[in-house]
Amino acid sequence: MEVYKITGGKRLQGTIKVSGAKNSAVALIPASILADSPVTIEGLPEILDVWTLKALLEEIGGDVSFENGTMTIDPRPMIDIPLPNGNVKKLRASYYLMGAMLGRFKKAAIGLPGGCFLGPRPIDQHIKGFEALGAKVTNEHGAIYLRAEELRGAKIYLDVASVGATINIMLAAVLAKGRTIIENAAKEPEIIDVATLLSNMGANIKGAGTNIIRIDGVEKLHGTNHTIIPDRIEAGTFMIAAALAGDGMTIDNVIPFHVEALTAKLREMGVTVVEEEERIFIPKAPTLQSVDVKTLVYPGFPTDLQQPFSVLLTQAAGSSVISDTIYSARFKHIDELRRMNAGARVEGQTAIISGPATLQAATVRASDLRAGAALVLAGLIAEGETEVQEIQHIERGYSDLIEKMRGIGAEIRKEVVPDPTSSKEDSERSTKRND
Ligand SMILES: CC(=O)N[C@H]1[C@@H](OP(=O)(O)OP(=O)(O)OC[C@H]2O[C@@H](n3ccc(=O)[nH]c3=O)[C@H](O)[C@@H]2O)O[C@H](CO)[C@@H](O)[C@@H]1O
Ligand SMILES: C=C(OP(=O)(O)O)C(=O)O
Fold first, then answer.
1. Does the Cβ of 23 fall within 6 Å of ligand 1?
2. Residues 223 and 104 grouped into a single domain
């Protein structure tokens, strides 16, 4: 199995470049299904989720090329093949195939999505939206079947401001007859990015980025060229790395406004954050002060940075409290950080972290994407060599992490090590053979 090995204690310096946003990419790619000619998306991150979506579009007949971050998708040959299993289970965002295929074919059959386990992740608001637009939706053997005679605009109030439901309803509504209004819509920057692509394809969308989005359905959508926004969560991960172990680091290709909640918390801890137009400079941090953090929908502190940020809190003087109001069980990384000598415990939806602690290297497991990022960050400052296992979660969302980190002075490498589980099976098999 592949693992990351990190030798802690190296100081980080120089410039690190942020890739295109994962959570935009995974919606922009399915959005192309709605066009009647090729769509080109530039600046895509080279992450597993993007490769999996490419494979899914090919499964339904799309002609897709992906090179140097540019994907060109010809949606014309696509057909409405059911996708109940397989690749759809590898990522959360396969749910966008529901909205996009429903919009184009008026029917779809998509397996329930995978992605990180962070506590319950229902999709009831997506389904409520599809039904309001006129689709009949059934759940059969773990796959969602959607069918509509025609889609008609509707007023949809989201019980929770869900990113996925907001985008999925936009995808289903752009080719529907009449006006759709999404109330209590999510406001994340990725929603604006998807609305920008759809508008450039000919859609009529107003209000993306606010909590009321109005969509007037159009007859058809055409191909276009689009450049993706930078990944604010990757940028935030690097900002945290800079505060943890940096001797002056520049994070390049970032929209400072998108990471304002993190910047505010870093400043509260005593870290200097210098914002430029598309770059952020963080000098060597002084002694860090403890802070309390609560994750909220955008523009609040993002849940996706909660786990990486908790590593920084292990280095702050005093006790910090971090609460996740979006995902109740997003704390699997805490057990792993404890193995590394962090002073941390979980109480309900809250982690209590006391510091500063001298982290010690250990063999740890990435239970999910941002838990993995957190463990890499912990490895950067731990005494000794940390081994991070189950890195496929990390590679679902971080592009060229090893190369980027090495570029600023980290000692990190990917290695193949024997898998303890398979060696047990192998030895059992060979024992049976010998019997
Ligand atoms: C691919 C993608 O973009 N993933 C992001 C997206 O996930 P995702 O779109 O799955 O997250 P949502 O915004 O939908 O979820 C927010 C909250 O709403 C709840 N909920 C959601 C939908 C629904 O139908 N019913 C319901 O109750 C969820 O359980 C969660 O508590 O936003 C999350 C919150 O910013 C991020 O952590 C993920 O990185
Ligand atoms: C939770 C995340 O991703 P996903 O929704 O794709 O599982 C994430 O990016 O932190």
1. yes
2. yes
